[in-house]
Design goal:
The protein is an alpha+beta fold. The protein has helices at about 30-40, 65-75, 80-90, 95-100, 105-110, 115-130, 150-160, 165-180, 185-190, 195-200, and strands at about 5-15, 15-20, 25-30, 45-50, 55-60. The radius of gyration is 17 Å and the shape is globular.
Length: about 200
């Protein structure tokens, strides 16, 4: 089992990176939360989970132990697969997810693409006890991302999270039409993942 990787970042996308470890390039799927932490770095250390299937080996990378723990918690819930778990962690920080579970905030959870009312209730029911064992103070203050190719990067990230190219493009166009103020890449993706933006296309 690969539990941690330390290396040079060869390639970075909002939801996927390639990490050079001793001359071997490892591809890892990540959340926007982790991308936020590493986007300005040349080298990084990521905690990992390897998913083994008959036709593929998939690596998921996490910047913090809290995020990795939450991904494992989320994927332990029926109907929540790896991609939806990453979408949830791309929409909410570990601290915000922790708060949503403890406060039984179904409205916030169902605002995430791919999480319906039943899934939100199941998340709260099955993860409340685990959430009570965790302690969060506040999220770290993160630097603002650059604006270069924001729309293209957002569309790429959305397709990595399971949306089709057409749906992703339409979702970005809708957000741009609704929000005239500048948006960071993370803000743009999060707004595009909201059901009223992407599910109707």
């Amino acid at each position: 089992m690969i539990a941690q990787l330390i290396g040079k970042l060869l390639h970075k996308e909002p939801t996927y990176i390639i990490l050079d470890v001793g001359g071997v390039g490892y591809g890892l799927h990540i959340s926007l939360y982790t991308f936020d932490q590493i986007k300005g770095l040349d080298h990084c250390t990521l905690l990992t989970v390897m998913q083994v299937k008959s036709d593929a080996l998939t690596l998921y990378g996490f910047y913090t132990l809290e995020e990795k723990s939450w991904w494992l918690y989320l994927t332990s819930v029926s109907s929540i697969g790896p991609k939806i778990a990453l979408t949830i962690l791309s929409s909410l920080t570990p601290a915000a997810l922790h708060k949503a579970i403890l406060s039984k905030d179904t409205r916030l959870l169902t605002s995430i693409k791919g999480v319906g009312a039943k899934a939100a209730q199941r998340l709260i029911l099955e993860l409340s006890d685990k959430a009570q064992k965790l302690d969060y103070i506040q999220d770290p203050v993160l630097p603002q991302p650059t604006q270069n190719k924001v729309d293209q990067d957002a569309i790429m990230a959305l397709t990595k999270l399971g949306l089709t190219q057409k749906v992703a493009e339409n979702a970005i166009e809708t957000v741009r039409a609704q929000v005239l103020s500048p948006l960071t890449l993370e803000e743009l993706i999060k707004k595009a993942l909201q059901p009223h933006t992407s599910s109707k296309y």
